[in-house]
Design goal:
Aldehyde Dehydrogenase, Chain A, domain 2, 7-stranded parallel sheet
Length: 416
């Protein structure tokens, strides 16, 4: 049963006040203590693996959506180990709060230092993938931020079980449990409370489908670090190594078609499309993928019409035949979402022009778009893929959840 709005608002207010106080302690803790807490949380996740899997089994049993989204929800031994390993990788990263970002001395002798600091209290709203809660908690702990998690209704049991393990790690190292809190309800009205919690929450990060991100951007009275849809493209240039193109495209689309880094559109040069496209389509069909193309693609291999502005998140791929690099760039500019776009080519000059010509948070050359992932970037995990214009772009790890401030050191100077 949904909780009354006043109860949710009261819980959020209390949680945010507690998070603020806990965040101050966390920000002043040593990197050694934070890293030890992350390793303790990883160990607790392994100890609680059976309970987490049992909770997840109940979530999966109750889920009635698509197979691709079911895969996002599903946990198994390997994915639990990946969660725990991700926390350990985060612990092994350099301290994002250490050191001086810049330092200079003014003519009057004042020494000005720019130093990193946490953002404060993060509100994390996510859907489907329960491991996101562990990733977000780890990244926030590493960077000295407190976090309030709100998972989706479909993964609520799993999220609560993971949270229990993480809190155990905090408790072992003497850090406040309020550093990582999880909403007591999956009621959509709780999202509304978070979005209007100006002064309580410093940054909202939504991670989920288009409707969630659009709602957050529309209703938020708190700054948002958001990503658009993953309308990602793989462009097969006429000077590609065809064997490489086959392998990269198959992985980019079908490794996990339900993730935001999956390729949604194949672009292929008109000069090689008649010879190469039938093979690429056959490769994908053998993996269970349906191709839908524009008129030029359909004239080579009969297929249903494409929808180039649709993020399929499923075993469906849009296909367009383009006239060289300029045609590919024009298509991406028209239909892309500034997430991740890739080119397969042996021509370094063309690759450089492609990477300079796209406006994506991540551009790739001769690599699968599914490498757009914080773990693959060496961040240990990610809290999301940012595609906006401010603060951070691409996978968001611990360093991207810090801002900066200044220390000014004088010797008694006064301003004339």
């Amino acid at each position: 049963m949904d909780a009354p709005a006043e109860i949710m608002d009261s819980w959020l207010c209390s949680a945010a006040v507690g998070a603020r106080a806990a965040g101050r302690i966390l920000a002043q803790s040593s990197a050694t203590q934070r890293d030890a807490a992350l390793r303790a949380a990883a160990a607790a996740i392994r100890r609680h693996a059976a309970a987490i899997l049992a909770a997840n089994a109940r979530d999966v049993e109750a889920y009635t959506g698509t197979a691709a989204f079911r895969d996002r929800l599903l946990l198994n031994d390997a994915r639990i180990e990946a969660m725990a390993g991700g926390l350990e990788m985060i612990a092994a990263l350099p301290d994002p709060l250490a050191g001086i970002l810049a330092e200079w001395t003014r003519p009057n002798g004042l020494v000005i230092r720019r130093i990193p600091q946490p953002i404060g209290v993060i509100g994390m709203i996510y859907e489907s993938r329960p491991n996101v809660g562990a990733d977000a908690a780890g990244i926030c702990l590493k960077s000295g931020n407190a976090v309030i998690l709100r998972g989706g209704s479909e993964s609520q049991r799993s999220a609560q079980a993971i949270h229990t393990a993480i809190i155990e790690g905090l408790r072992e190292l003497g850090l406040p449990e309020a550093c990582v809190q999880i909403a007591p309800t999956s009621d959509r009205a709780f999202v509304a409370a978070m979005l209007t919690a100006s002064g309580l929450i410093d940054l909202i990060i939504p991670r989920g489908g288009k409707s969630l991100v659009e709602r957050v951007q529309r209703e938020a009275r708190v700054p948002v670090l958001a990503h658009a849809e993953g309308l990602n493209h793989t462009y097969v240039h006429e000077e590609a190594d065809f064997g490489m193109a086959r392998a990269v495209l198959a992985n980019a689309k079908m490794r996990r078609p339900g993730v935001c880094g999956a390729t949604e559109t194949l672009l292929i040069d008109a000069s090689v499309a008649p010879a190469w496209l039938p093979v690429l389509v056959a490769d994908l069909a053998a993996l269970g993928c349906e191709c839908r193309g524009d008129a030029r693609a359909g004239a080579i291999v009969p297929m249903a019409a494409a929808a180039f502005d649709t993020e399929w998140l499923d075993a469906i791929l849009s296909v367009a035949v383009v006239d060289g690099l300029d045609g590919a760039l024009a298509h991406i500019a028209r239909h892309g979402s500034s997430h991740t776009d890739a080119i397969v080519t042996e021509n370094a000059e063309v690759a450089a022009r492609f990477l300079a010509g796209i406006d994506s948070a991540v551009g790739m050359w001769n690599a699968s778009t599914q490498f757009c992932d914080g773990g693959e970037f060496g961040f240990g995990a990610e809290i999301g893929i940012a595609t906006g214009r401010f603060h951070a772009r691409g996978p968001v790890g611990p360093a991207q959840l810090t801002v900066f401030r200044y220390h000014v050191v004088g010797t008694g100077q006064v301003r004339p």
